[in-house]
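Technical annex B. To support the medicinal chemistry partners, we prepared a structural model of the target in complex with inosinic acid, based solely on the information shown next.
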Amino acid sequence: MSSVSVFGAQWGDEGKGKIIDLLSQDVDVVVRYQGGANAGHTVVVGGQKYVLHLIPSGILHAGRVNVIGNGVAVDPAKLLEEIDGLLERGVEVNGENLRLSSNAQVIFEHHKLMDRYSERWRGDGRIGTTGRGIGPSYADKAARTGLRIGDLLEPDHCANRLRAALAEKNALMEKVHGESGLDFDEQLAIYLALGKRLAPFVGDTGAEVRRAYNAGKRVLFEGAQGVMLDIDHGTYPFVTSSNTGTNGIPAGAGFPAKQIETAYGIAKAYCTRVGEGPFPSEQADPIGKRIRDAGNEYGATTGRPRRCGWFDAVAVRYGLELCGADGLVVTNLDVLSGFEEISVATRYRVGGEEREDYPADLVDLGSVQAIYESRPGWTEDLTAVRKYEDLPQRARDYVEWLEQLVGVPIVLLSVGPDREQVIPRGLFVAS
Ligand code: IMP
């Protein structure tokens, strides 16, 4: 395994942070290729909890190179806050083990403000964004009015580009949203200072990653969010603004598609979503609440309660197929202990018709109804189980049922937040 993609196969929050952390032990380079500080990867190491938003989880392992690729939208202040937080806790972060693409888009203060104002403007049609400026920054990238990290290192160039960008944003904030604009000189000074501090990390990361791979180094691509939040293939418009699966790697990391050798999807043993938008297997009832309480389902980035429901085999199958997954990792299996019955959405009803395939061509995904099948649950606590054969029969039956439904092998199970709380099933995980 010289290059491996790990992506969320649901609506994000699948527990990717822990799995990426485990796999990081076995690779040389860890690369983020999309998203920004809207992500929140929680990793527990030696009883200590780390929540990483922008920096790849490989930073917690000595000797790994961690790359923030060109496809990431970077809030420089947040990144420096994260760097400082890690340094304070004794984690080594320097220009050798953290690399930042000079071509990554910058998230400015005006992007964060516009994120909030646009959501307010949308009213009932709001997306429920994380408010981190992601959409407005990617919108500017597509409009070619955005600035990139490299621009922050060139004061005159930065001044010219920021002046033009802010003039338009100030007009929008003042005239459309009835808010005050931002002072150009102040913003320029803030972002040039941030750029100066980030300079030691900045480079041509695409070339660096390709060079490492060609020299035989093992590269792990760390997805943020999940396939159902992918801007092209997810539940548009209730999505994030990037390509979240394996499909985002070539553009977002500058890495050839044909060199992505292995791909693993990550899914919870049930399903959650934060923000607005279709969620066919949602249980907006006591069952959903029970899952939320058992799984402590609150957002790592915003603290919002997550919407909870049963495993949606239709959506996961779709995400795995889209990304060419070789296997699936199922997390939070322990959370389902104690449910008398466990259901899975195995098909959808779409306009009176039953379908097993995900209706990606449907305009109103909210009109889809999930059709469930159920199996008896188990009562035993799974958190101390480390071998597949030690799982209760009903838990094994559930895993094998999911495996049959999603069409790829389930290669690893996770039964708790700690690194060691895993049950291997084919995927080698160094310890
Ligand atoms: P944005 O990415 O902040 O623009 O938010 C767009 C949608 O993606 C909203 O529904 C967010 O809740 C969702 N989202 C963004 N990042 C994450 C994540 O890391 N986990 C789960 N949902 C996310």
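Notes passed to the chemistry partners:
Residues 155-176 form the longest helix (22 residues).
The chain has a mean pLDDT of 95.
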